[in-house]
Design brief:
By secondary structure, the protein is α+β, with helices and mostly antiparallel strands. The chain folds into three domains: about 70 residues, lambda repressor-like DNA-binding domains (434 Repressor (Amino-terminal Domain)); about 80 residues; about 90 residues. The protein has seven helices and nine strands.
Length: about 260
């Protein structure tokens, strides 16, 4: 076990680097650098960013970034910064339709049974001038009609709704995303489902290096979340259109086919 903060501070002091110079070189605010050197990780914007800040700062100081991240994980990690996959779950809406169909079918069956009972009672009491065989014929006809008619109407309406609704609300798909590091090494992660969802791509781009995600990489995706270690040192193009990033470290950007915006 070793002290993460002490290791970072000693490395900076040995290289005679001031806090302001470290901020200018890494684009990480002084207060965040001091928080890492004091092991006051609650000051950082979110648990997800701890790994990115540690990696960027450690690489800048020529330290083993993965060793520092592993130590943080063992001593402080709550699991918030870990990449994880959000498993798809069945929504209440998806379960509602089958229950509704079963309910309708049950109601029709109950009505048919009730009709059989009423007719049988009336026949037994000698209702009207009909013979005892007529109620049996009527019962068979009404029961068959109820059973055959019930499922025919409801599924037709629901099937039409299922076919029409997705077409009307379908969002445009992402075609391409191009990331280019323009200055120092830049840590990047792209997630789907949410800002902490499954990682579509993650890594560190050296100055001048680019990463392209084409249509085959983005198949079926309409919305992604981008996290950047040094926004001012990165350019982004979405579907061929250049996007603007702020210089604020810790921002999360939402990418759609229409462009890129900061997450509220």
């Amino acid at each position: 076990m070793f002290e993460i903060g002490t290791t970072l501070r000693d490395a900076r002091v040995r290289r005679d680097i001031s806090l302001q110079q470290a901020e200018d070189d890494t684009k990480i605010r002084v207060k965040y650098i001091q928080a890492m050197e004091n092991e006051d990780f609650d000051v950082l914007p979110a648990g997800t960013y701890v790994k990115g800040f540690l990696r960027t700062y450690a690489d800048y100081l020529d330290l083993d970034a993965q060793l520092l991240i592993d130590e943080y994980n063992d001593r402080f990690g709550s699991g918030d910064y870990r990449e994880h996959i959000i498993q798809p779950t069945r929504t209440a809406k998806s379960d509602k339709a089958p229950r509704a169909r079963r309910k309708h079918q049950t109601n029709y069956v109950l009505v048919a049974i009730l009709a059989v009972v009423i007719i049988a009672v009336l026949a037994y009491l000698g209702w009207g001038n009909a013979s005892s065989e007529k109620p049996t014929l009527v019962t068979t006809t009404e029961t068959d009609a109820a059973v055959q008619t019930a499922p025919a109407t409801t599924p037709t309406t629901e099937t039409a709704a299922r076919v029409i609704t997705p077409t009307q609300t379908q969002a445009a798909s992402l075609q391409s995303i191009i990331l280019t590091a323009t200055s120092s090494d830049n840590w990047i992660e792209i997630h789907k489902n949410s800002a902490d969802g499954e990682v579509v791509w993650g890594g560190t781009l050296s100055s001048g290096e680019s990463k392209s995600l084409e249509q085959k990489d983005l198949s079926g995706l309409t919305k992604l979340w981008l996290k950047v270690g040094s926004p001012s040192g990165l350019t982004v193009s979405v579907n061929g259109q250049p996007q603007k990033l702020t210089e604020e470290v810790g921002e999360v950007y939402v990418i759609t086919a229409s462009g890129m915006t900061r997450q509220a």
